[in-house]
Amino acid sequence: MGFLSDIVAEVRADLRRTPLDEDGLRRRARECDPPLDLAGALVDAAPLGVIAEVKRASPSAGSIAEGADPVAQARAYAAAGAAAVSVLTEPRHFAGSLGDLEAVRSAVDVPLLRKDFLVDPAQVVEARGYGADAILLIAAALGDDELAAMLHEAAGLDMGVLLETHSDGDLDRALATDARVIGVNARDLETLEVDPERARRQLARVPADRIAVLESGIRSRGDVVSAVDAGASAILVGEHLMRAGDPGAAIRSLIGKEPSS
Questions:
Q1: Active site residue 185
Q2: Active-site residue, selected from the candidate residues 55, 126, 153, 226
Q3: How do residues 107-162 score in pLDDT, each as one tens digit?
Q4: Which H or E run includes 261?
Q5: Which residue among 53, 90, 102, 153 is the active-site one?
Q6: Cα distance between residue 216 and residue 192, in whole Å
Q7: What would the pLDDT profile of 220-243 be if each residue is shown by its tens digit?
């Protein structure tokens, strides 16, 4: 067992103890504006789309930006040209909440990705009801039937999906679906170790008709160039931007528009 196995077990136990009110969440989702198109936003941002993440903490880094204002952070990201904003909603290990997602939705007009450990279709409905346009699904956290059910629920709500992979087996399963946005996480979520070389090999396997997103381990323009050379057309960055004094300048530096101060 490792981190991913443990946290997914926690989430499943929570859902068994306290099932989500799916009917209420569907009513809430119907009141939301139509979802924005994550894949389209990433394509429009070519040659490189940035998914900028609101993340106060992580199990690998500990506290990153305790007390950070998600609205101010998201606005800085959007102003700097981020194609989308990712919001961590997991409370125990990442200090996030659905309230963060809802607040950011009211503040920016780019696609929002709910990043969490989603294992039940009701959580997809929950994400839509709190303003998410897209969800993160982690292939390693879901069986084949579960993954199909989650993708089906997202499609029914017109939501986008970032389907995250960590291993060659994960990537094989992801490419067997019709998910358009494929994430390759350089961090192994069981051990929390980062392996950029493994990630670059996997990026090279993503076909050109999909959108390949590198996640984790991005701290410099050189990291971005290496990712693009390997086949990435988008990046997801959190910790580096949360630690930056000027997150907008940090984004521009990563994409090569100007140095961060």
A1: yes
A2: 55
A3: 999 999 999 999 999 999 999 999 999 999 999 999 999 999 999 999 999 999 99
A4: none
A5: 53
A6: 10
A7: 999 999 999 999 999 999 999 999
Burial level of 38, CB count in 10 A (0-12/13-18/19+)?
A: buried
Which of 58, 86, 185, 226 is catalytic? The answer is: 185
Known active-site residue 106? no
Q: How much of the chain, in percent, has pLDDT values that exceed 70?
A: 98
Tokens of 242: 């949360």
Beta strands in the chain (DSSP E): 49-54, 57-58, 62-63, 84-88, 112-115, 134-138, 160-165, 181-185, 211-215, 234-237
| 216 is known as an active-site residue | yes
Catalytic residue among 90, 126, 153, 164: 164
| Residue whose pair of structure tokens reads 């926690």 in the numeric block | 10
Sign, Cα dihedral of 125, 126, 129, 132: negative
- Please confirm, yes or no, whether 31 is among the known catalytic residues: no
* Active-site residue flag, 102: no
> What pTM was computed for the model?
0.95
CB 58 within 8 A of CB 64: yes
Amino acid at 180: R
* Three-state secondary structure call for residue 126: helix
**257 is a catalytic site residue:** no
| Alpha-carbon separation of residue 253 from 136, 191, 220, 222, 249 (angstroms) | 26, 30, 8, 10, 6
Marked catalytic residue, from 215, 226, 239, 253:
215
